[in-house]
Amino acid sequence: MARRAGSQGEKTEAAIRDAALKLIARCGYEALSMRRLAEEVGLGAAAIYRYFPNKQAILMGLLERHMLDLLTSWEQARLPAARPAPERLECFTRFHIRHHLPRAEGVFLSYMELRSLTPDNFDRIEGLRRSYESDLAAILEAGRREGSLAAPAPRVTARAVIAMLTGLTTWYRKSGPLTPSEVEAIYWRLVAGMVGLAPQERASGPETTSAPA
User: Fold this and answer.
1) CATH number, residue 66
2) Which segment of 44-48, 142-146, 208-212 scores lowest on mean pLDDT?
């Protein structure tokens, strides 16, 4: 775990994390060296070890922070379980897009660099991912029970939905022809179609649900 040394130490630690995120996203975890990271931040090669003992600790810290931020933001954005499943599903869909679009590098690491974690660290991150996935599966299962959603295999459907929504970060560009709101609307229609919602049932209140950028 990183060692902090007052406000300046916290700023340096944050700068190390930010530089590591960009370097790993650009070059891959295996190509990252502590010396190169230190140069990127403007530290001496030995100084960086005051904050992180090795690059595995840096990667784990990035992935864990990414998942904990996601779970905390989702907890604040989610609709109560008493609301109809289609509304909760739309809330999840729009939240996922809004949360992940500004975090493309973190998303890339969370999928492509899981393989670089030690077994214990892998299990920790997988547990956090399963927690988020389980929330969506629970929404789909509730919709199946109440007859509002056609989701015969909620867990599989949840994985398919998350994969589709997360894939946005590989192609969406602010300079492109679509605004984030337009992308949300398109993807909500796609998700709604996957679970059998009729067109007239696809517009509801959670459209205004927001996530911190």
Assistant:
1) 1.10.357.10
2) 208-212
Q: What's the CATH number where 37 sits?
A: 1.10.10.60
Confidence of residue 200 (pLDDT cuts 50, 70, 90): low
Helix, strand or coil for residue 170?
helix
pTM: 0.85
Same domain, 27 and 116: no
Q: What is the DSSP string of 84-142?
A: -HHHHHHHHHHHHHHHHGGGHHHHHHHHHSGGGS-HHHHHHHHHHHHHHHHHHHHHHHH
DSSP alpha helices (H): ranges in the chain?
6-27, 34-41, 55-77, 85-100, 104-112, 119-146, 154-166, 180-194
d(CA 58, CA 175) in angstroms, rounded, equals 32
Q: Which two tokens stand for residue 157?
A: 């459907």
